[in-house]
Amino acid sequence: MAGRVIVVGSVNIDLVVTVERLPAAGETVTGGRFSRHHGGKSGNQAVAAARLGAQTIFIGAVGSDPFGAEVRAALFADGVDAANLVTLAGEATGLAFILVDAAGENSIAVASGANAALTPNLVEAALHQVAPLAGDVVLVGHEISTATAVAALRAGRSADATTIFNPAPAVGLTRESLDAAEILTPNRGELAFLSGTDGPADAAARALLASATGVRAVLVSLGAGGARLVQRDVGADAVIPAESVAVVDTVGAGDALNGALAAGLAAGQDLETAARRAVVAAGLAVTRAGAREGMPTSAELDARLAR
Hints:
Layout: E1 4-8, E2 12-18, E3 33-39, H1 41-51, E4 55-63, H2 66-77, E5 80-88, E6 94-100, E7 106-111, H3 120-130, E8 137-141, H4 146-158, E9 162-166, H5 175-179, E10 183-184, H6 188-195, H7 201-211, E11 217-221, E12 227-231, E13 238-240, H8 253-266, H9 271-285, H10 298-305
Helix pairs in contact: 1-8, 3-4, 6-7, 8-9
């Protein structure tokens, strides 16, 4: 029987302006097009896992404003169980302000709101209600407080669930906080920050494993370069290439990768197989606009893998 994917972290409303190029500091670029989407890295990851067929539960917080009810409804509409999404009185729902240029590159500013007010006690109570089991995957993001993220990871490990930590942003994380996870999924910049070296990805990942002794694997996302999987007890690293695609919007790429990785592990795939499928899912996601709109279904991913 397949396990569940339990996602703990942030959920936002994304306010997006698409422009020809990203402005320099102090510059105004006109002629943009506005759109509004549902986002937040963890919310996106939950949707990515659900679209790939995983039974997915989301734990997080929204504010007592109209956006909060909209966020909750959107998660349910995408097949995510949002019964443990709490509403915090007096808080605002998280908002992200995103600029996307003609090449699909982006710049993002986030007003965290209720995400920042999500406490370890709230998460621990929700996880007690959900009751993770061996075979489940607990996927935690870092757009919430470090203490709350660590509490979620430790609760997942104590229940023998597989724990994944997407350390984005990486600022504020310590070795002790990383040790709470089994699998880390940084991008190249986050890996350099966490490992203290900007050398090759494999060497930086090995350095990170040497310092974070509780972690068993690091999956480094490299954008158009695919990914590299470095495992503590496996001598040879897995170099995972990305297929060349026409990029429309890179906002949800890392979220697609994390959600697909969690879905694959919950379905019983080994880590390398799940990682390879996750890279393909990320490649599909960037070919469509919108962080969640681009998330592939299981049928789309299987069709791409069968090519």
